[in-house]
Design brief:
142 residues, alpha+beta, Nuclear Transport Factor 2, Chain: A, six-stranded mixed beta sheet, 40% helix
Length: 142
């Protein structure tokens, strides 16, 4: 009896120490989540996958020129249809992420195409639920 009590207490102490010493699993940081969103944006744009691309834009999206998500979708669909996205090159490697509360900026992003030359854009993202979505964009002068 004494042996089983000691064994039970020993097991209890082991479980308490083991469970108490575990570090909680931490998810990806906001910067990592933003980078994931923008990497997916780049891949979707290069693949000319309009559905995948637009899933990364918030319903609250407004460009610096006042375009909505619906207008952006129409513009991107037209660009795909005209071949304006053929042979594009997108550089996000030099972009910096600046976090301010539940919003962030990501840029500069350079998009080069045969038809339009190079555009430099800065994106604004916002946390919506567990994802970061694009809520704004503005063109930077080269």
């Amino acid at each position: 009896m004494k042996k089983s009590v000691i064994l039970s207490l020993g097991l209890l102490v082991f479980v308490a120490v083991f469970c108490g010493c575990q570090t909680p699993v931490k998810g990806p940081s906001d910067k990592q989540l933003i980078n994931t969103t923008m990497t997916e944006w780049k891949a979707a744009l290069e693949a000319k996958d309009l559905g995948r691309l637009m899933a990364l834009f918030s319903d609250n999206y407004v460009s610096s020129s006042g375009s909505s998500k619906v207008a952006m979708r129409e513009s991107m669909a037209g660009a795909i249809e005209r071949g304006s996205l053929d042979n594009i090159e997108i550089k996000i490697e030099n972009a910096k992420t600046t976090l301010v509360g539940d919003q962030a900026t990501f840029g500069p992003v350079e998009i080069t195409s045969d038809k339009r030359g190079t555009l430099t854009i800065e994106y604004t993202l916002q946390r919506e639920d567990v994802k970061w979505l694009i809520v704004g964009s503005k063109r930077k002068e080269n």
